[in-house]
């Protein structure tokens, strides 16, 4: 309930202060103009070289603000990345129903539904990619009718979208069997999220659960699957539960190292703590095309794992990673100084802490701290020398036995 209240607060704030652009795209497929809403990330103008994932919202009229609010909240805490949000308006002239027209027998798009399907893939996405700086990663989301429609992109040999947020989908004919089949077949990485609730429409809920029963049996590394069945929620309130859950699931690798991740995945490793950190950010770049500077808190987490497991040799690797990410800071020297200190090379540790003093401060690492560490080690060295002097016993010069000139008397023979 607390999370829901926070999300509601951010939604309201976002409506007032977020950048939301209304645009019109002329569609040759639909032979009409369509209104779309565009939400650009806060850093879009500040970072001209940065590219951003696309989140396409069907039912953009009422899903745009909740999604933008959740993303703004997550980005504020550095839990979610910035994305370009595209919402399609579908509230005029019964567009929502006609856009999603399907053939009842086959359950596939037909008439305007087929044209709308092509409009998204062949006109809208290229239009956005040409006009804005977009990364290859694309998400699509919808509710009931539009959620089911979004699943049709899974039927393509090479799906347009990489992630699907299907909230209480009103599944078309055969879809509960066909979606798991496609999820098991698609070779490229796919994120699939869907949800229902105990207060959901019963006939829809039963088929959604049947889809889950088949989908959760799929075991393949390229599929990231999650199903939420919310308690105490209705068909409409489940949306505000689903949005943050779906986003945090899809972008889990983006999030900083949490206490749970540290305790369950990192500190339990026998070795390779720095490799874990490097691979985490390599996966982020590979999956979402996001090249991020490794967070300072993530460096601290790996430092803690190294110290806890006494894997001091890994400080060398960590220092190399620090030098690459924060070349002007004292972070790399700090890690090297720890290596020398923990392995008993006190003289090198002192010199390296002094070297760190000359670099830029970062986080809670300060020049005063580096000098204090160096002075502390100098004090330890001095104390050891004093102890050696005090404990060395005085050396007594041995007294030689003086030679005697008195001859030994021989025994007289009688």
TrEMBL record:
GO-annotated molecular function: hydrolase activity
SUPFAM superfamilies assigned: alpha/beta-Hydrolases
Pfam families: Esterase (PF00756)
Region span, Disordered: 377-414
Keyword Hydrolase: yes
UniProt xrefs under InterPro entries: AB_hydrolase_fold, Esterase-like, Mycobacterial_A85_antigen, TPR-like_helical_dom_sf
Stretches with biased composition (Basic and acidic residues): 377-387
Alphabetized UniProt keyword annotations: Hydrolase
Signal peptide range in chain numbering: none
Domain of life: Bacteria
The name this protein goes by in its record: Alpha/beta hydrolase-fold protein
Organism, scientific name: Flavobacterium aureirubrum
Organismal lineage: Bacteria, Pseudomonadati, Bacteroidota, Flavobacteriia, Flavobacteriales
């Amino acid at each position: 309930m607390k999370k829901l209240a926070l999300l509601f607060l951010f939604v309201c704030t976002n409506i007032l202060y977020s950048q939301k652009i209304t645009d019109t795209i002329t569609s040759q497929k639909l032979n009409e103009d369509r209104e779309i809403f565009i939400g650009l990330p806060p850093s879009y103008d500040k970072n001209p070289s940065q590219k951003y994932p696309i989140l396409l919202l069907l039912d953009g009229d009422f899903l745009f603000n909740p999604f933008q609010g959740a993303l703004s909240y997550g980005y504020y805490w550095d839990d979610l990345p910035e994305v370009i949000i595209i919402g399609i308006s579908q509230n005029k002239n019964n567009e929502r129903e006609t856009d999603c027209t399907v053939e009842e027998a086959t359950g596939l798009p037909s008439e305007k539904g087929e044209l709308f399907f092509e409009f998204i893939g062949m006109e809208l996405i290229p239009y956005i990619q040409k006009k804005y700086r977009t990364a290859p990663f694309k998400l699509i989301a919808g509710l009931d009718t539009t959620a089911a429609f979004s699943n049709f992109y899974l039927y393509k040999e090479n799906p347009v979208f990489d992630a699907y947020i299907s909230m209480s989908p009103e599944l078309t004919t055969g879809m509960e069997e066909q979606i798991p089949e496609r999820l098991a077949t698609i070779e490229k990485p796919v994120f699939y999220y869907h949800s229902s609730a105990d207060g959901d429409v019963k006939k829809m809920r039963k088929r959604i659960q049947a889809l889950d029963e088949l989908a959760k049996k799929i075991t393949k590394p390229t599929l990231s699957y999650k199903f939420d069945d919310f308690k105490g929620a209705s068909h409409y309130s489940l949306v505000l539960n689903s949005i943050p859950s779906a986003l945090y699931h899809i972008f889990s690798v983006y999030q900083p190292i949490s206490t749970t991740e540290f305790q369950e995945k990192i500190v339990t490793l026998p070795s390779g703590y720095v490799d874990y950190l490097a691979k985490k950010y390599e996966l982020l770049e590979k999956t979402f095309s996001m090249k991020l500077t490794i967070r300072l808190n993530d460096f601290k987490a790996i430092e803690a794992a190294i110290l806890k497991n006494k894997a001091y040799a890994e400080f060398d690797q960590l220092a190399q990673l620090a030098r690459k990410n924060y070349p002007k800071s004292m972070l790399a020297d700090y890690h090297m100084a720890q290596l020398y200190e923990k392995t008993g090379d006190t003289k090198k540790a002192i010199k390296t802490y002094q070297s760190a003093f000359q670099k830029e401060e970062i986080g809670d690492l300060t020049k005063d701290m580096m000098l204090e560490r160096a002075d502390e080690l100098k004090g330890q060295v001095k104390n050891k020398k004093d102890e050696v002097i005090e404990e060395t016993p005085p050396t007594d010069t041995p007294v030689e036995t003086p030679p005697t000139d008195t001859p030994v008397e021989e025994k007289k023979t009688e």
